[in-house]
Design a protein that fits this description.
By secondary structure, the protein is an alpha+beta fold. It is 32% helix and 17% strand. It has one domain.
């Protein structure tokens, strides 16, 4: 089984991953070296000082797409 996470962010600094789960969000944060303090219930925020480096590793989508991922409307 492939355990590769695909990172998604929006212009508001919200960050999620597919496959989406809370466990995978924390794994993503560890991989991206983001403190768990940036976790907000169902997503991470990207720290301002890391925006450029993290966005390079993400697929940039709309905020609506972030919500769809969280709701499992996108896989």
């Amino acid at each position: 089984m492939d355990n590769t996470l695909i990172y998604y962010c929006d212009s508001s600094r919200h960050l999620v991953c597919i496959p989406y789960s809370i466990d995978n969000l924390h794994k993503m944060a560890n991989e991206l070296r983001i403190s768990h303090l940036w976790f907000h219930n169902n997503h991470y925020d990207i720290p301002k000082r890391k925006i450029k480096s993290i966005k390079k590793k993400c697929i940039v989508v709309s905020s609506k797409d972030i919500v769809r991922i969280i709701r499992h409307d996108i896989t």
